[in-house]
Amino acid sequence: MSISLLIVDDSEFSRNMIKRALPPQWDVTVDEASSGLEALDYCKSLQFDVIFLDLTMPDMDGLDVLKALGERGYQSKIFVISADIQASSKEIALERGALDFLAKPINVDKLTSMLQNHEVL
Ligand SMILES: [Mg+2]
Q1: What does the pLDDT average to over 52-80?
Q2: Ligand 1 mean position, distance from CA 11 (Å)
Q3: Which domain does 14 fall in, by range?
Q4: pTM over the 0.85 mark
Q5: Residue 1 alpha carbon to ligand 1 centre in Å
Q6: What's the CATH number where 64 sits?
Q7: What distance in angstroms lies between residue 76's CA and the mean position of ligand 1's atoms?
Q8: Which of 4, 12, 93, 117 is the most buried (most CB within 10 A)?
Q9: How many domains, in total, are found in the chain?
Q10: Within its chain, how far is the Cα of 61 from the centroid?
Q11: What is the crossing angle of helices 62-72 and 36-45, to 10°?
């Protein structure tokens, strides 16, 4: 059965970069959200197995998205994919349920091993 993935990033360029970096053997169905609010809206009606979450977004940042999903008890494997991830943000993201982090620009091998480490690939 195909895994459902939501890519949350305000940059279309980043979303496309992430899609291109997905392991070809990964059986996945991809949805995209271009803002935190849009992501929360999707998650109201859809259950995603995996979420890739940007931190820096204009309307609502990734940390706020994590908080909101946590408050709803939303169950998903959430990975932060962001350009610069400060130690303090990392700590908050982990507290709020993120599983792991990947820096942009994406390294395909690192993405693959992160997914394997968390048994989604
Ligand atoms: Mg961004």
Answers
A1: 97
A2: 6
A3: 3-117
A4: yes
A5: 30
A6: 3.40.50.2300
A7: 21
A8: 93
A9: 1
A10: 12
A11: 20
